[in-house]
Task: structure prediction
Amino acid sequence: MFEHVDHYPGDPILSLLEKFGHDTRPNKVNLSIGLYYDENGKIPVLKSVQAAAKIVQEKAEPHTYLPMEGLAAYREAVQHLLFGRDSAALRDNRVATIQSVGGSGALRVAADFIKTYLPDSAVWISDPSWDNHHALFTAARIQVHTYPYYDAVTNNINFGGMLETLNTLPAKSIVLMQPCCHNPTGLDLNHAQWKEVIGVLQQRNLIPFLDIAYQGFGDGIEEDAWVVRAMADAGLTMVVTNSFSKNFSLYGERCGGLSFVCPSAKEAALVLGQLKAGVRRIYSSPPLFGSKLVATVLHDADLRQQWDREVAAMRDRIKTMREKLRNSLTAHAPSVDGSYLVNQRGMFSYTGFTAAEVDSLREDSAIYLIRSGRLCIPGLNNQNVESVAQAMAETLKK
Ligand code: PLP
Ligand code: TYF
Result:
């Protein structure tokens, strides 16, 4: 019956994690999958989230269904976090927001909506981008194209190439961009460059799709939402997907959001209705527990402050590890320019290492990067950063 079913080779990132698990070398270092690890190599349970869990537990509310669009308090918190409390779009009721099954679920529900209501629009993603972007839109039968983003020669953004391509796109094309901490390159546009992009989006009547999975890991929770707010304030019609997997360390609770900023309150109401219908057809309603945790933290002044501090601690540790790796690498290989390590932001650095160099690091030194050369900074700690730098320097000398 199922002989004809295609073999699934697995997700390259998750397969590599499995391989790491089977590696028996005691000094092995995992710098592959995008998870935030603390200084002790553990995935943290945030104190603010622990306190919220206690509050939720003590209330002992029934485990009832959430509505299709999710928990109201959670949806409001998502809106304030992304658009700011004083957002004109929110005040005018022009934003339709649903709770989603992680950031991935938001992307898929958005993709289904786009396929139905903008059937002629293709999606343009950065080259490179998170691999799953391609898969999620293709699954919804949407055409996916890429715009230039990473310049391997300069290890920087090819902004000219990006703008040139955006300037050729037909009206109503969807342009997927990451507001901060770009996965996989760690390279973000600066404000001046974003302003230029906003100009092109307006001029050509393009639809920005902002996917923000690392809010707070770049410059700060508010700061990292800058372009979301700039685009909303510029009056653009746009889609925003967000994930709390990383900044709440709530990976498995599947907490995300999907927001459409619409030209009018009437359109926002129509869009919300169809997003609910889309959810109903796929999974009916989102999970309850994680949404209560996030809503509890974000609506309680003390817990919110505690969360801000905990996100700041994660962000600062990432920055410290970037500096330490750069300093040690420069000490071991003075001719290597390691400045990219401190110029890139968020969880990831694109090292420019070739697949052969990544293989050599893994086979000779038990250091695991993604074959694209992506290095996940939070896998570093004070115990391993020196030996990683040394191995990187040796690999570059080979
Ligand atoms: N978007 C980007 C850029 C990501 O890196 C990720 C996950 O790491 C997601 C979306 C999906 O997030 P989630 O794990 O919440 O589905
Ligand atoms: O890019 C990453 O490493 C994260 C984690 O199927 C991830 O996005 C990787 C693969 C996957 C889900 C999450």
